[in-house]
TrEMBL record:
Transmembrane segments: none annotated. It comes from the Bacteria. The lineage of its organism: Bacteria, Pseudomonadati, Pseudomonadota, Alphaproteobacteria, Hyphomicrobiales. This is Choline kinase. It comes from Hansschlegelia quercus. Pfam families: APH (PF01636). Keywords: Kinase, Transferase. GO terms for biological process: phosphatidylethanolamine biosynthetic process. PANTHER family: CHOLINE/ETHANOALAMINE KINASE, ETHANOLAMINE KINASE. One of its GO terms (cellular component) is cytoplasm.
Length: 292
């Protein structure tokens, strides 16, 4: 039996009184609601496990609690299967232009996240190895008979080439989904939210991801890398970051293609697929120019 999302939110034992959930727009993985209860505001995120996307809610809970302990994410107040309740942050949710305008603060937040979250992480936690994720998406798209299945051999060959180019890398507990809407500025502090895709990965993926998802210029990407590593990037590091920027856009495009087949949410995934494939091709051209 399907439970109405609003009714499910209203029925949580966490509330101290009757509540009237307000839907929040912008989510493309979960259903989100703003709830006022006893003078406080909360965000409720509804979402079951999504193994197709490497999203497992036990892992999201562990990551959110570690992020809270590290001081980079709001407090998690309640968890049960399919439901997470966190404190609402009064602030400005970023768009792409905001991320670029606040690049130094964003870079420092990513650095702090990578440096500190693993110290607070408790219990089992997932890996989010980018190239396994890409390969698994290929299997899923073939099994589902996606409309673009004939494009997969080329895209998979590019992913293999990128993986070989990047080579051995350090591993951190990363966010792995640095879209602009996951940054909130309360006027004093910058927060990072939504830990669905968190997991152990190369830090280059978050660096490439924030650059690719927010339209960074090459100079802005260099600035990001210089702040993160505390040194100006040389050509070798610049090329590895660009490689993972390409991988980030490919992952976002394949994620959208899988979502076309399987997501129950009302969102134009076809248009999102086209947008990310276009960005991917431009980033790949730049990578090829850098490595010729």
């Amino acid at each position: 039996m399907t439970i109405d999302p609003v009714a499910r939110v209203c029925g949580l034992a966490f509330w101290k009184g009757p509540v009237d959930p307000e839907p929040l727009t912008g989510g493309i993985t979960n259903r989100n609601f703003l709830v006022r209860d006893q003078g406080r505001k909360y965000v409720v995120r509804l979402g079951e496990d999504i193994p197709l996307h490497n999203v497992m809610r036990f892992n999201e809970r562990a990551a959110a609690m570690a992020a809270e302990a590290a001081g980079v994410s709001p407090a998690l107040r309640h968890f049960e299967p399919g439901v997470i309740v966190i404190d609402h942050i009064e602030g400005r949710t970023f768009g792409e232009a905001d991320v670029r305008a606040e690049l130094p603060r964003v870079a420092e937040l990513i650095r702090r996240t990578h440096r500190d979250l693993g110290k607070h992480l408790k219990g089992p936690a997932l890996a989010f190895w980018t190239f396994h994720v890409l390969r698994n998406y290929g299997h899923t798209l073939r099994d589902g008979g996606h409309r673009m299945v004939s494009d997969l051999p080329r895209l998979e060959a590019i992913a293999d080439r990128i993986e070989a180019f990047v080579g051995p890398t350090e591993v951190v507990f990363a966010h792995n989904d640095l879209l602009p809407g996951n940054f909130i500025d309360d006027g004093e502090k910058l927060w990072l939210i939504d830990w669905d895709y968190a997991g152990f990965n190369t830090p280059l993926f978050d660096l490439g991801g924030v650059a690719s998802n927010n339209g960074f210029s090459p100079d802005e990407t260099d600035q990001l890398v210089a702040i993160y590593y505390r040194r100006a990037p040389d050509d070798a590091l610049r090329a590895r970051v660009q490689a993972m920027l390409v991988a980030s856009l490919l992952r976002e495009a394949l994620w959208s293609m899988v979502s076309e087949l399987h997501s129950p949410l009302d969102f134009d995934y076809r248009a999102y697929t086209a947008e990310n494939l276009s960005r991917f091709e431009r980033a790949l051209l730049r990578f090829d120019e850098m490595t010729q």
